[in-house]
Amino acid sequence: MNLPALNLTPQQQKLMQMVDLLPGEAPAYTIQGDGFFIGSNPLQKAAAAMAATLVKLTGGHIRVFVVITNQRILLIESRQMWCGCMQIKGVQAIALAALAEAGWARETQWCCIHSRAVHLESKTQRYSLVIKHLKDQHLREFVSQLSQVMLQNVAQRTAT
């Protein structure tokens, strides 16, 4: 895969410490999800923004990232409440050969309020994630790169 250069934020660098990379494996692309998303309606988005503010004020966070490496797709999640009194951390790995579907969508409400999402489907699981801070072009590139992986899977007969 020839993905763009990886520029990790400090939060992403911290979460990447939870991952043991395989020999020869290198992160190539990452996107950040919105862990507070409750709907694309502007009122729901406002409620999610208020919830995010309250969680942040109490020393918490919800961080969700998708990291594409040259060997697998990593879904990394970190949730913290009340300055660390409750913490949840998790990593899921999907082999590139198991990738069956990838896509993105944009929903617009009230003519100017946008929500963007990506979905990934492996041979056994479907993952949907609302995306923060990316424009349509970046999501198109993301899906285009994963489409190349899926075509390689078909050529190598690892796809179902």
Structure in words:
This protein is an alpha+beta fold. Helix content is 27%, strand content 39%. The chain has three helices and seven strands. The chain has helices at 10-16, 42-57, 136-155, and strands at residues 27-33, 61-69, 72-81, 86-95, 99-109, 113-122, 126-131. It has a four-stranded antiparallel beta sheet. A three-stranded antiparallel beta sheet has the order 5-6-7, with helices on one face. The longest helix is centred in the last third of the chain and has 20 residues, at 136-155. The chain is globular and about 50 Å long. It starts with 9 loop residues before the first helix and ends in a 5-residue tail after the last helix. The model is unreliable at 1-5 (pLDDT under 50).
Number of helices: 3
| Strands, total number | 7
Most strands sheet:
4 strands, antiparallel
Q: Give the helix/strand class.
A: alpha+beta
The gyration radius over C-alpha positions equals 17 Å
What's the end-to-end separation, in Å? 21 Å
Identify the overall geometry. globular
Q: Which band does the percent of strand residues land in?
A: 35-45%
**Which runs of at least 5 residues are low in confidence (pLDDT < 50)?**
1-5
In round numbers, the mean pLDDT is 83
Helix content, binned percent: 25-40%
Brief write-up:
The protein has three helices and seven strands, in the order αβαββββββα. With 160 residues, the protein is of the alpha+beta class.
Topology:
Blueprint: H1 10-16, E1 27-33, H2 42-57, E2 61-69, E3 72-81, E4 86-95, E5 99-109, E6 113-122, E7 126-131, H3 136-155
Antiparallel strand pairs: 1-2, 2-3, 3-4, 5-6, 6-7
